[in-house]
Specification:
Length: 224
Amino acid sequence: MAMPPDTPLAQPSPEASARRRAPEETRREILDAATAEFSEKGFAGGRVDEIAARMRTTKRMIYYYFGSKELLYAAVLERLYGGMRDAEQALHLEALPPLEALRRMVETTFDYHAAHPNFVRLVCVENIHEARIVAASPTILARNAAVLGTLRGLLARGEAAGVFRPGLAALDLHMLISSFCFYRVSNRHTLGAIFGADMQAPQTVAAHRAMMVDAVLRYVRPSA
């Protein structure tokens, strides 16, 4: 029998809509919403019901995919750290001459931090909480250990080729590369308020990117 024209159609519930999406798409959408929520309010201030509201689903659906707020927060961090490591692996540094490989590593690190300010904010939050979530995540620990292995291999190749000075430590080089890339994003608001510096101005971004490449390459080269 035909439905009267003024009869309202039943609207699907948020959970029913989420179930119709592909599981990976739903998981990605939850992580996107959680990244925004936690980067704005930290782990303690972030609320699962607010994350659900951001993507028009329910807390029950989020818990179905991630189990708990803490596991969701860990998954957000794992994805952001993993994105950095994926970008590094995509460079295939072993196929490049050492100096070019290091240049590409610096540029990629700079670009990832500049493009992912939420990553920087969440790392700041984790340091406030003494890396409680990071320390408990085997995924984060394993993936970040890999970058030191990559740098050790690169340093060994560069030293053997005579283009890097001997005795360089992979962790020190990693910290040197990451430090300014991180700082210019983490402190962009105070730098703007105090010095009037716009860290997002295209000419500033380009100058800082070139400066970091130059600084790192000068650091690793043999002394005259």
